[in-house]
Every structure is written in C-alpha cells, then in structure tokens.
Amino acid sequence: MPEGHTLFALARDLDAAYRGTQPTVSSPQGKFAAGAAVLSGRTFVHATSWGKHLFAEFEDDAWLHVHLGLIGTFSIDERQYAGEVPVVGQVRLRLATDEHVADLRGPNLCAVITPDVVEAVMARLGPDPLRPEPDPEIAWRKIARSAKAIAELLMDQSVLAGIGNVYRSEVLFRQRVDPFRPGKEIRRTTWDAIWLDLVDLLPLGVATGKIVTVAEQVDEIRAEVAAGQVDRLTERLSYVYKRQGEPCRVCGSRIRTRVVAGRNLFWCGRCQRRR
Ligand SMILES: [Zn+2]
Which positions make up the signal peptide (predicted)? Predict the structure, then answer.
C-alpha cells in the first residue's frame, strides 16, 4: 500500500500540473461519471495530502477525495501529442488539459465532497509528519493511554497518519523498540525519537520515491537532497522489512516476521528486545 510520502508527492505533482487550469474531468470506466460531471471545467485550486488521503480543491467548494487503498495508482503524464489519449485499463478518473493527462485506477475511494467533509476526514486523522506544523502531542496522548502494541498503534491512521507497514517496521528497528511493547509502556523520550525519525525520513521518501531507512542510504540521499540533485533509487535497502530469515544488519540474528494489524511485521528479536 502506498504510504504517506507517495501521496505527498502525488499532491505536489498534481498541483504543479493542474493548479489554475480547468481540466476536463471524466470517468472512462463510468463508475465516477456523476462526480466527474460535477468537477469538469471547474478551476483546479490546489491539491494536498494528509496521510494516505489525497484532496484536490476545485472552485466553488467542490473537493475531490481519493484514497488509493492497496492497489490504486494515479499517474500524471505530459501530453506528447494533441487529440485523444487512449484509455488503458480501468480508469476511474481522468483529468485532462492540453498539457497533461492524469489517470486514476483502482482506488479504494474516489468521491466529490464538501469542505465540511474534508474537515471531518482530516479531524479523524492523526498528525502527518509531512504536513506543515503537525502536532505530535495528539499521537502521544493516544499512544500513552493504549494497551495495544506500539507496532499496531503506528499503523492506526487516527494515531499517526501516513505511516504504513514499511515505515513502522523500519522505524521501530531504527529506534530499537520492541514492537510488541504496549503504547502505555512506551517512554516519552522513545516516542519523541520515533516521531523525529519519521519527520526526518519521510521527506527522503518524497525526494526519492522510495522508503529510505538504512543509515548509509539515508546519509547519501540526505546529501543529494541538500545539493538539490537526487537520483531515483533503483534499489531500496531495509533493516528488517521483507528480510525474514536473513541476518540482522546490526547483530546477525535472524529477522523475524508475524502478522500485526493485518500486515506482516518484521523485527529483530535481539536488537529490539525490551530493556
Ligand atoms: Zn539485530
């Protein structure tokens, strides 16, 4: 499932392509025909993301709300030629101008909503480390009173928004936190370190399109970002994600896996032992 950095980059790219334009909105597949008719021809005001949710504001208070879910994709292409761009696959939503065509396929959700609903959706979501001035206290208050495992809480979008299965496994390893430790037993300093690590790591995900967590790669990419020249990574390294049975990069013991909150959690039993 795409994590928050993917949605953030998508909102940024949609904004760059469509802000101030009046795209023709259609639903080649038909499932979003009514919504497309509402939006078509209106000025695209701006796009933003909160966690895994994408919002695009059109003039006169019409908002497009998209959640990609597990398999959804939203591609934005520059037009190479005038005329109809062929539809490939099941396109729920198409945004077309003379310069760009964006196709949304397989989303979990695609709807036109009012500003009130936008506010209500955002109010239900925990802080997103990529948003301007997120409030980590909101997440901390929920974690500190919960008996659920921290690995489960990090996946709960009402606690923290945008974190998915890869970031949760990796950040818990990076901070050497036992993933099964209940939220209420997590120390404040540990939570602060997790939050700051996510604030630090997610922009690298936005810059590269990949989840970068292993120290060497983090240093390399951070230097590239600072220099304003990022090569798109071809290979992503991880500490624990999808490395079950392989030796831990730090201590050599075998990486373990178990389903937690519906997805496979990966961790090192030795490095992430309770202290
Ligand atoms: Zn280890």
Answer: none
